[in-house]
Amino acid sequence: MATVRKPALRGRRLASALWRLVRIYWTSPDARWGGLLLAAAIALEFGSVQATVQVSAAQRRTIEALEHRDAGGFALLVGVFLGLSLLSIVVSTVRVYLRQRLEIRWRRGLTGNFVARWMGGEAYGQSELHGGEIDNPDQRIAEDIRDFVASALGLSLSLLAALATLVSFGGLLWSLSSGWQIPFRGDQHQVPGLLLWVAVGFAVVSMWLTHLLGRRLVPINYDRFRYEADFRYGLVRFRDHVEQVALSRGEGVERLGAVTRFRNVYDIFLSLVRAELELNILTGTLGTVNGLVPLLLAAPSYFEGLVTLGLIVQTRVAYDQVSGALSWFVNAYREIARWRANIERLDGFLDVMEATSDDLAQVPIRIETAPALQVVDLRLEAPGGRLLLERATASLHAGERVALLGAPGRGKTTFFRSLAGIWPFGSGRIERPERDRMLFLSQRPYLPIGTLRAAVSYPAAEDAFDDARVRDALAQVGLAHLAPKLDSALPWEQQLSVHEQQRLAIARALLQQPDWLLLDEATSALDEPSERRLYDMLIEHLPRTAMIASGLRPRALELMAHRWTLSEHGDAAVLQAA
For the domain with range 365-577, which CATH number is right: 3.40.50.300, 1.10.287.130, 3.40.50.620, 3.40.50.10070? Predict the structure, then answer.
């Protein structure tokens, strides 16, 4: 994809992008249920921390009973320790369950919002106006949203747990290490909250080093998501067009393209591996050194008989908890880097969709609802401003049939797009009936994923028509042999020839029975007698339906009472209605 990454989001811009994404779900009607799940998850985060505090205290008492050879007390304390440990496990398990429930609800809300906007009425305008500004919107919706929500919950709840751990174990660590007598040069020295200060200092240095070494992970992850999606898209595109590629003997070109796209994946992955290797070495070294700190500081006091082994065990547990809480940023850095890349990709997607809405809101072509179809002073332009069609005026009423004529490249397809309301470039006014009363059939029909029944019923729901009507429609257009396969889910775009796909689209018109039918070279793959038979059938079964058809051969053209001709006029075309 020839897209250029925008400058990285930082500071206020990052916070603004984050809030922009977060508020989509948390201002929706489902947010109240999400809020209940979040509150329960937060409560269990605190409960999990408190359970860990109690487990550490029980562990200390157990070690001290063992140290004092108190068999009875040891057995009792082991039971207490096991009970508290079991409670901690239950709390942690339920906490994860609630978080996952919230995660899927949040993802559902965010995905629904993006899908509604991306697959809405502005989809075509977006591809024409801003198609080159964004890569792989499918991946951004399917994967970036999933990862964004998972990381948002995981990072926020883990940060909350880290803060709770810091408060709970910080005070404990202060009290445990404040009374330590540190022998130094023959004297005993006491530093209030010694290990707490050590943990804070070590965490500050660790965060600075980690950020210094790991900040390049954000752009690397951004590009990795893009290259992976480009590679996957190329493979899917080859699968969907394997026949055309084979007939063109283009396998070598496609293979070279796939290898080239994978080379990007390979190179960026190596960059990621190298960056994470350096970061792993740093964080592993810091973690190892940090784990030895409480033992190194406690050893002199223990050898002097100033502290018990149980106290050292509990102190080390408290130090590990406080150090882990203070090292949250270090431990979460990789996920934060991926999350920031998700935020940037989703924020850029929102920018494109909002820019499309703003651009289309300023388009001077007015679409108005009216009982008949009428174009008034319609002027069509290319996205860059090149004139395609001079001011055109024409009208069509219920039951009338019009042939749209003109040489190839004169703008017939663009004219159909303007009638559909998806071509935003130009000026003038289009009056038309409600969109759901109109049906557009193109030269290459779209066949959705699913069963043959879904394909022939499209855009209506798969179960909108009973078996008898569907089978009759297929028989009318010469596809009766497909009736036994109605419920077969196959890649029908590849299973059916172009002329069969066009016949299937005509069957849709028989089922939908629209009031207005627009056919843009919808029978171009058929021979002339077959084309004439299909139009005879449409006129017979849809006598009150108004039609505009292009690309007709002489025998079918005879059935059209009116002619709209797009003729050359300078660099543009003019519409002559007769």
Answer: 3.40.50.300
